[in-house]
Amino acid sequence: SLVISFSSIAADQCMLLPITVQKRTQEASLIVEAEVLSSQSFWTKNHDMIYTIHHLKIYKLFKGNPSLTEF
Question: Which of 21, 45, 57, 59 has its CA 20 to 30 A from that of 30?
């Protein structure tokens, strides 16, 4: 399975900006069709950020070159 970690820095009031699908696909380095096998969330040591690790089973690769490592 492939392990992917996503994180984002909390902004004032957790503001989100809309991004079009076209821009997301252009900027993405990896796009896959996958099943989430498990997820685990945890705090940083300072309890200022939350990270989540997802273990995926990849069915189809649309863009990029996945490796079998954490990134």
Answer: 45
